């Protein structure tokens, strides 16, 4: 750890917005400054203005970068999130800060009503959360954070405390969310998959009757350009799905269960499941660190990799596709989610090779990896998840390229991401061709993952990174 850029573990005195004109120092220092400004004392907000609470998979990626500045803060980031876990094992996608006004973000705590509507599912009584989830990157993050300072981790009992919670989280996904009955976890809302506005969701969402516009107010439009954000129609569908799930007390229903509603959304997503498998591998390593064998978890990860390939791999597309459980088949849209399984070490060689070719081919071969097919009818380089490049998916793919021996491509992607992140003011997302900033700037996971990429580059590329 570079002590000269250590960020204090004490609470920040005030909110510090990122100033795109603050060009003093190195990219490393500028990224660290973003994370210092977004630190609340116990966790990191994605963006002070647009996202003023704690988000689930954001905190996983933030912890991965924070480990290079302060392993203690990285551990605290994950511990704060896990403290809001529900009794059934789910980790909610938002943990609300009670000091933030209700109208600062929608849907707010009074929409989710977690402590009442979620009582049967074991929602915590002392903190307000949402009722849906996000991709399970957390065990991978916990393992990498442990490896950053094993002595501190062991002294604090970090892994011993988080392991039972992470194991319960995976049980929830593998049992309560196996809605298709094949072994993969399903998402029941686009917000759960994390790539909210992807064209991959257009067909499944078309069955959903949107909530009337007068029943909600979009706080996001006060901080982002409307042309960069989801449409009002799509947002109305998001609200309808979330309200219906809340009104059935956050009960998960199999795909054929009429109680779930005829227009309910249930999709098996390759990226969500790839992160679950990667985190199963990480849990096996954590189990070994704690004195167990981890054999069962390794076997489960290998079995799930086989199910993922059997169920979602589409050779003619050269990538994985989502499966719409209500519609009964693959979704014929190429989203970056279909490339993320490259992260997995157990992929068949022909599948991994095809993914590398697709990543470099006409559908995704921009300077920065787009979130959606460059040749798709719905491609838009500026609109939220419908074409812009995101730094978390780029980080996962850079890691996947190295896993499967494509080091030169990984180096090129890494360097392009570092340059674009710094030049854009650590933007939420960017134009995949030009790197032009879109969405919020001073975005936490962009800064955090830039730190991780810089650390790897500074110590001779991938040789210096703990691949876990």
TrEMBL record:
Q: Where is the Mannosylglycerate hydrolase MGH1-like glycoside hydrolase domain?
A: 51-446
One Pfam family here: MGH1-like_GH
Give the SUPFAM superfamilies listed for this entry. Six-hairpin glycosidases
Q: Does the keyword Hydrolase apply?
A: yes
Recite the UniProt keywords alphabetically: Glycosidase, Hydrolase
What family classification does the UniProt entry report for this protein?
Belongs to the glycosyl hydrolase 63 family.
The molecule here is called Mannosylglycerate hydrolase MGH1-like glycoside hydrolase domain-containing protein
Q: Name the source organism.
A: Streptomyces cinereospinus
